[in-house]
Write a structure and sequence with these properties.
The chain is mainly beta. It has a single domain, classed as Double-stranded beta-helix (4-Layer Sandwich). It is 13% helix and 46% strand. It has five helices and 19 strands. The strands form four sheets. A six-stranded antiparallel beta sheet has the order 5-6-3-10-13-8, with no helix packed on it. It has a six-stranded antiparallel beta sheet with strand order 11-12-9-16-19-14. Strands 1-2-7-4 form a four-stranded antiparallel beta sheet, with no helix packed on it. The longest helix has 11 residues. The chain starts with a strand and ends with a helix. The relative contact order is 0.17. It holds the Pfam family AIM24. InterPro entries: AIM24 (IPR002838), AIM24_sf (IPR036983), Trp_RNA-bd_attenuator-like_dom (IPR016031).
């Protein structure tokens, strides 16, 4: 997948060039522009599409397959301001991506949301992981800039759970409270995730849950809204 990322890290814009006969799979609503001979097919059937669900509401997650008989361009943009990163999914392993960060991938990459390995760990943060396997390129988006770290065997890094974007399945992870219950309630820190290498870990420099909390704090009390 040939991708040119511009306007990052604040407002990243990804332009995907399709060769003649090429195709790309894109999150519903992420397409910002097409150029050239580009066709679109929207589907929820077959393969990972049958099991792909949104991380909230339980509604079906539609995706769009863009193809071009003679070549063209598909440009994508994420819902929240932030960066994009193109990563390779190897045939020998899996990449675990939080559902809100997957924006596009080669059609040769299988994205499985029926895999429940991350739901139990992350349910308190509303984070659902997508298990991406196969061989090809995957475009991730983030709220804020994206930082990547490569952990050696036994090396550990701890992330606030709201900042998790993706990690290799070779990386072990556990979710815990940031500290004591007092620190969790009064200190403003909730759940954190300990990642232990070997493998790659990606984080976003902002948290959408923090944004939601800030907006809610500025809203008038329910009684005054009426």
């Amino acid at each position: 997948m040939q991708v040119e990322i511009s306007s990052g890290p604040a407002f990243a814009f990804g332009e995907i060039t399709l060769p003649a006969g090429g195709a790309v799979r894109v999150e519903a609503g992420a397409m910002a522009m097409t150029r050239g001979d580009v066709q679109i097919a929207t589907s929820t059937r077959g393969g990972f599409l049958k099991g792909l669900k949104r991380s909230f509401g339980g509604e079906s997650f539609f995706v769009n397959d863009f193809s071009s008989p003679t070549g063209g361009v598909v440009a994508v943009a994420a819902a929240l301001p932030g960066d994009m990163s193109l990563v390779t999914v190897e045939g020998t392993g899996a990449l675990l991506v939080q559902s809100g960060s997957w924006i596009a991938s080669d059609t040769s990459v299988d994205v499985d949301a029926k895999w429940g390995g991350g739901k139990t760990f992350f349910s308190g943060e509303g984070l659902v992981l997508l298990r991406c396997t196969g061989q090809g390129e995957l475009l991730m988006s983030a709220y804020g800039a994206i930082r990547s770290y490569t952990l050696a065997a036994g090396e550990q890094v701890t992330l606030d759970t709201g900042h998790v974007v993706a990690f290799d399945d070779t990386v072990q992870y556990t979710v815990r409270k940031a500290g004591s219950w007092k620190s969790t309630i009064l200190g403003g820190e909730g759940l954190v995730t300990d990642f232990t290498g070997p493998g790659r870990v990606w984080l976003q420099t902002r948290s959408s849950s923090d944004l939601i909390g800030w907006i809610q704090s500025k809203l008038p009390p329910p009684a005054s809204r009426s």
